[in-house]
Design brief:
alpha/beta; 5-stranded parallel β-sheet; 9 helices; 45% helix; globular
């Protein structure tokens, strides 16, 4: 039986080719990436009807960098909760949140860190919500292995995207 995974994200999802999950997972997993560069949780809330059209067993929400730049921490929790509620009410599915990488932009690192902590807390007492710990994977990366190109402090390089894809794969497969 096929399991449908839909990635709802921003440029990190869009530019990574869905974190390589189509090739990382077996054929029983059908991966659809509808990520849109520049999108925030608010943009997805305004376009949520688009989400209803996709039958999904597992939603991967990879959002937060644009939220940090546009809104800071203001409203992040309520917008994320609203998006999760919508996804849970429209279909019987699970939601996998992402603690996103802190980026190499110093001015938003603390905001992203605070929003990631909000994501961790959203899982409490919710059996259909989980998260993938990308922040700590990037932060524990050995010094000397760059995860971002010099020309772009926000979007990971291929090594960074590979780390993200592998973390999603392990969480999906329960490894």
């Amino acid at each position: 039986m096929n399991r449908q995974i839909t990635i709802v994200g921003d440029s990190l999802g869009q530019w990574s080719d869905g974190f390589g999950l189509k090739s990382k997972l077996s054929a029983e997993f059908l991966v659809t990436d509808i990520s849109v560069a520049g999108y925030t949780t608010e943009d997805w809330l305004q376009n949520k009807d688009r989400l209803n059209a996709i039958p999904t067993d597992l939603w991967i929400l990879e959002l937060g960098t644009n939220d940090a730049m546009v809104y800071g921490t203001i409203g992040f929790e309520s917008r994320t909760r609203e998006l999760i509620s919508f996804l849970e009410s429209s279909q019987v599915s699970k939601v996998l949140l992402t603690t996103i990488p802190l980026t190499n932009i110093v001015s938003i690192r603390e905001v992203i860190k605070a929003n990631n902590q909000t994501i961790r807390l959203l899982k409490e007492n919710k059996p259909n919500i989980d998260y993938v710990e990308i922040e700590s994977i990037f932060e524990s990366n050995p010094i000397g292995v760059p995860l971002y190109p010099l020309s772009d402090p926000i979007h990971p390089n291929q090594i960074g995207y590979e780390l993200m894809g592998e973390a999603y794969r392990k969480k999906i497969l329960g490894i």
